[in-house]
Amino acid sequence: DVLTEVSNEEEAIRAGRLGAKIIGINNRNLRDLSTDLATTETLTPLLPEDALIISESGIYTHQDVLRLAPLADGFLVGSSIMAQQDLTTAVQQLLFGKVKVCGLTS
Question: In CATH terms, is domain 3-96 a member of 3.90.550.10?
Fold first, then answer.
């Protein structure tokens, strides 16, 4: 299988026309390296409904995951978890949020 990466409207439309089935939406601007999650929000409606959508880059928090979950089938995450010492906890917090239970200590 091939993941076709898109980062703008022209590429998204082209990927759809060419029948891409797995599409990665790159939220990173490759010119200045900034990220904008609105890229996934803007490009997803332009893609085929039956395509598997992966939102790539700029996903740092559980709130980011919640924001994009209705639009994407998966996420490509790197620096936000790789910078953490405890990778298991970092992934859990990214996916499920940080749970604080008052009165309990560990």
Answer: no
